[in-house]
Amino acid sequence: MPARTDHEQRLTQLLNHGSAALLCGGLKGLEKESLRVDGNGCLAHTPHPESLGAALTHPLITTDYSEALIELVTPALATVPEALGFLCDIHNFVYQNLDGEMLWATSMPCALAGDASIPIAAYGRSNVGMMKHVYRRGLGWRYGRTMQTISGVHFNYSFPQALWPVLRELQQDRRPLREFVDESYFGMLRNFQRVGWLVPYFFGASPAVCKSFFHDRYPDFKEFDAHTLYEPYATSLRMSDIGYKNKNQARVGVRYNSLADYVATLTHAISTPEPEYQRIGVKVNGEYRQLNVNILQIENEFYTFARPKQPINSGERPTLALKKRGVMYAEVRALDVNAYDAVGADSATLRFIEALLAWCLLTDSPPVSDSEQHAINRNQAEAARRGRDPALKLVRDGGGILLRDWAAEITGQMDGICAILDADDPLKPYSASLQARRQDLADSERLPSARVLADMRAHGESFFCFAKRLSETHRDYFLRRRLPAASQQHFRQLALESLEKQQQIEAADTLSFDEYLQHYFSQT
């Protein structure tokens, strides 16, 4: 009989202590990005609708890189259905205010006409609004605007507060509770870096892209049709080297071996000049091109599968928030928009990720060496670019292992966690999601990335036509759906309050923008 794994031992400790239920009820939040497009599927050039509120100050409806890239944010909620239901209501309200436009249904963007056609998000004339805008200018100069139109879904998750004292007691850890919590989150994040390729493998939905994404400079991809490029075994081109895991980010060097290690390496990246960015310049002919010439302008420029988070106070740097108050939750950033779901994500996906995060928490997590980090980066890239290749081997412990074999090992160890998370639910949704993932391993044609390509072939359509068809389907659904009156009033009130708050911020500014930036970057 094989020895029990460390996570099984910790689960048994929780069960024997009568505390296994403390794994349930972690808070869940969603951030979902969508391009706003016109009725023809072309990128919208209209301003962010004022009836949705001010993107600078609205807590739920904002913009990301582009004025046309809406980001919808839910509060932290106790259950997956609550989070998805709230996200559905926000979509409903947005569609009431789009005036004939719609939200693009896929992670990879619609037909684009080059960088100049992509409007950078505007946030008004305040210093904080101008900083957000200039930061985005910098992203455009560094990576190109086209890459910034890629959309995703972020899953924010915090373990129940009552879990931490019990885990510390069972592990006989005598550190202060905050230190224990911080190290527990970082151990979980290290493991998620190791096995997070499971997310694009199981849920990636971007195996193809419009040729317009590349401005006529095509990479070594296959041609699906006259307008579409693809990779036969790709799961998530969004998370590949053409997307957010690109060569510019490969040299950032942020480490997860402790909170102090993470803050120190991230601080180094946001304070160390990069020659390539020095050539761009900062303020040229009186206009800012970027916030600075450092490897990263600010912390948010660091793209990764998952990162630790602590809510920031107004004007506070994220690294200082982490340093002062520790980790409050983890942000999982590896999830594509699910083109087949009206809100871009479904409950089975989120439940599997929640169970995987619990597995990562309870599994031993040694520090990551430089050589292992290299293997992690390779594994993430390979799973995104050719994850469905049955011959694909990932690197583990210096050797090779078939992706499917490693995935089978991990999913084979998650039954106990899913049973606990199911609690008294007779439908056992966590276990059902786990079983569905095993079926996906047995038949990769079930995976969303394979379904997208099969759907395009069955309809004889390009990626653009596929995405436009589903975008129209989702639009029609939300235009038919009735938003509860209380939710309607709530969203209208938030929109009005956000417009007022932006005006107050603009009226309160006393520093010049140059002085504001100097003050922001001098925080210690």
Overview of the molecule:
- By secondary structure, the chain is α+β, with helices and mostly antiparallel strands.
- It has a single domain, classed as Creatine Kinase, Chain A, domain 2 (2-Layer Sandwich).
- Helix content is 43%, strand content 11%.
- It has helices spanning 6-16, 80-95, 127-143, 163-170, 177-195, 198-203, 259-269, 275-278, 318-325, 347-362, 370-386, 403-411, 415-422, 429-442, 448-459, 463-480, 485-508, 513-521, and strands at 27-37, 61-63, 69-73, 102-103, 153-158, 208-210, 222-225, 228-230, 283-284, 287-288, 306-309, 329-335, 393-396, 399-402.
- Strands 1, 2, 3, 4, 5, 11 and 12 form a 7-stranded antiparallel β-sheet that branches.
- α13 runs antiparallel to α14.
- The longest helix has 24 residues, at 485-508.
- The chain starts with 5 loop residues before the first helix and ends with a helix.
Helix/strand class: alpha+beta
- What is the number of helices? 18
Shape: globular
Extract low-pLDDT stretches.
none
Residue share in helices? 40-55%
User: Mean pLDDT, rounded to whole units?
Assistant: 95
What oligomeric state do these chains adopt? single chain
CATH class identity = Alpha Beta
List the topology elements.
Elements: H1 6-16, E1 27-37, E2 61-63, E3 69-73, H2 80-95, E4 102-103, H3 127-143, E5 153-158, H4 163-170, H5 177-195, H6 198-203, E6 208-210, E7 222-225, E8 228-230, H7 259-269, H8 275-278, E9 283-284, E10 287-288, E11 306-309, H9 318-325, E12 329-335, H10 347-362, H11 370-386, E13 393-396, E14 399-402, H12 403-411, H13 415-422, H14 429-442, H15 448-459, H16 463-480, H17 485-508, H18 513-521
Antiparallel strand pairs: 1-3, 1-4, 1-5, 2-3, 5-12, 6-8, 7-8, 9-10, 11-12, 13-14
Helix pairs in contact: 1-10, 5-10, 7-9, 10-14, 12-14, 13-14
